[in-house]
Amino acid sequence: TERPLVWIPRPVHEDALARLRPHADVRPGYGPEGVPFDEVSDRVTAILLRTERVDGAMMRRAPHLRIVARHGVGLDTVDVDTARELGITVTTTPTANSRSVAEHAVALLLAVRRGIGIALRGEGDTRAAIRGRELSGTALGLIGFGRIAREVAAIAGRGFGMRVLAYDPMVPASVMTSAGAEPADLPTLLSRAEHLSLHVPLAEGTRNLIGLPELLALPEGAVVVNTSRGGVLDESALLDVVRRGHLAGAGLDVTAVEPLPSDHPLRDEPSIVITPHTGAQTAEALRRMATEAADHIIAHIA
Ligand code: NAD
């Protein structure tokens, strides 16, 4: 019988390729040896992809395809209905980047609180303009208490001595308490959160979950950080409350439109720090996402 064939449309961490090679022929879709999908479709057993599209037509052209292993999360680029119909397994790596995103949320929090964005702009006497605040002893509200939020709670609670409050209707209070967070309903959390960090998926129930009333419910001078999805936070409401001076600033790794246009009004606010969806862009997360996806393929074709 023929060896399994894994097609990889875009570069992933080298450790994943090394892991796959004893089990399968590895064919890149990129670089000098790159082959397009159509040249391997009659033999391909597995696809290890990042954000590339795998549509139903591709799956139907690949009679031996058994698994599509996604590096990272989010399946909007994969036709999961056709995969299900054809018996093709689709996997993701939901925990591989949690720690990296959590550390990034804390980085944004510090960047806003200590005026690092203002300092980097270098406009006028930035030293005189910057008045930071310590995180220690302040309250951090977490909206959503899944994988990433629990890592944030650990860093903020044990590392910075923050008081952590969490709101997540799907997580039992005992889980929050043992992870160092105090369970709270949304109004209570908002009224106390000097820092607010968002960690919910974007879904119908979470679109604009944090809008003008929620932002105005925060204590004066609060900071909001969003590393989840742009649509969870109403950006025009955010701009409004920052301009009014109700919020001290915000840190955004995600925005409703990505990449964020260079002339977007969010960029005009010195107290808003923006990173281009880089929460998971660390050596560790990239390696973990790739090797976990490779392991899913190996387990499946063994
Ligand atoms: P998770 O599934 O582990 O946790 C999400 C939590 O949100 C769940 O516990 C769920 O009960 C809760 N939740 C859902 N709806 C809610 C609501 N209306 N109110 C309160 N809580 C609600 O997810 P995760 O791995 O922690 O990821 C969280 C977010 O981070 C996702 O939006 C994900 O897309 C995003 N993310 C961003 C990056 C990045 O690069 N910035 C990387 C990975 C994930």
Brief summary of the model shown:
This protein has 302 residues and is an alpha/beta fold.
Overall pLDDT: 96
C-alpha-based Rg, rounded: 22 Å
So how many helices?
Answer: 13
**Strand order, largest beta sheet:** 8-7-6-9-10-11-12
The proportion of strand residues reads 15-25%
Q: What string, H for helix and E for strand, traces the elements in order?
A: EHEHEHEHEHHHEHEHEHEHEHEEH
Distance between the termini: 13 Å
What does this structure look like?
With 302 residues, this protein is an alpha/beta fold. Helices cover 36% and strands 16% of the residues. The protein is built from 13 helices and twelve strands. The strands form two sheets. A seven-stranded parallel β-sheet has the order 8-7-6-9-10-11-12, with helices on both faces. Strand 3 (46-49), helix 3 (56-60) and strand 4 form a beta-alpha-beta unit. Helix 1 (14-20) packs parallel to helix 13 (283-301) and helix 5 crosses helix 8 (147-160). The longest helix is centred in the C-terminal third of the chain and has 19 residues, at 283-301. The radius of gyration is 22 Å and the shape is elongated. The model has no long low-confidence stretch (mean pLDDT 96). It binds nicotinamide-adenine-dinucleotide. Residues 73, 94, 97-98, 101, 143-149, 167-171, 199-202, 205-206, 209, 227-229, 253-254, 277, 279-280 line the site of nicotinamide-adenine-dinucleotide. The site of nicotinamide-adenine-dinucleotide has 32 residues, from helix 5 and helix 8. Residues 124-279 form the D-isomer specific 2-hydroxyacid dehydrogenase NAD-binding domain. Residues 40-301 form the D-isomer specific 2-hydroxyacid dehydrogenase catalytic domain. Keywords: NAD, Oxidoreductase.
